[in-house]
Amino acid sequence: MKKIFLIVIALVIFTGRYANAQEQSSNLVSLQYSMGFSMGDLNKYISQASFLGILIDYRYMATDNVYAGVELGGNLFYEKKDYATYTKETMTLTGTQWRYVSVMPLFVNAGYVFSPASDFSPYAGLGIGTMYHEVELDIGIYELTRNQWQFAMKPELGVIYKPMPEIGILLGAKSYNGFKTENSSAINYIALNIGIVWIE
User: Fold this and answer.
1) Considering the entire predicted model, what is its pTM?
2) Phi, psi of 15, rounded to the nearest 5 degrees
3) 95: Cβ–Cβ under 8 A, 6 or more apart, which residues?
4) Are 36 and 189 in contact (CB under 8 A)?
5) Nearest 5°: phi and psi at 147?
6) What's the pLDDT at 139?
7) CB neighbours of 143 closer than 8 A, spacing ≥ 6?
8) Which of 126, 141, 184, 200 to pair with 18, CA 20 to 30 A apart?
9) For 179-193, what is the mean pLDDT?
10) Cα 197 from chain centroid?
């Protein structure tokens, strides 16, 4: 799972460099640090917040107010349970547990920017796409893993502050909502993001 998270970070950095190289007028590329707070079934499994998150966001401004773009990122949730029992079918394991959930969202986004000419530009958006997640449970010498892709949606709100014409600072909140599948519980969490935006 740690390898997957490192791969996600590498992909984010690579995508950011590529997108930055392709920038033309009316393009925004942001590199963001993401803090995740689990909800629903994910919160029942891991209640601790995730402070290991990163994403790249590309936006094409179709008009002064309307944008479309893509997002790729990753968050790693983990928690230690000092004494817990895991049961599956006829197997029962009791002991110290290390629980990990690695989430990689991939979305197509659209949104609206308020006051685009101002130094402070609030925005609201909606993303539709998929989230890959891998769940790992370590108990002593045992390591149990499973992974799944889920259809997902993501509303978001935020603001971009532009101290310079070509550089901005982004503050935002996103609600990632995965849909339950036959083999996997829904993955839901809220992310608070801060990042730097390149504007051209």
Assistant:
1) 0.83
2) -65, -40
3) 83, 84, 139, 140
4) yes
5) -140, 160
6) 85
7) 136, 137
8) 126
9) 92
10) 17
**Mind listing the pLDDT tens digit for each residue in 116-132?**
989 999 999 999 999 99
The CATH number assigned to the domain with range 2-199 reads 2.40.160.20
Q: What is the pLDDT of residues 59-89, one digit of tens each?
A: 999 999 999 999 999 999 999 988 777 777 6
Percent of the chain, pLDDT > 70? 86
Whether pLDDT at 3 is above 80: no
Residue (of 44, 62, 70, 43) closest to 154 by Cα position:
70
Rounded alpha-carbon distances, angstroms, from residue 133 to 37, 99, 100, 147, 150: 15, 13, 10, 6, 8
149 vs 146: CA distance, rounded Å = 11
Q: Residue 84: its pLDDT value, please?
A: 76
Cα–Cα distances in Å, from 180 out to 40, 81, 133?
A: 11, 25, 12
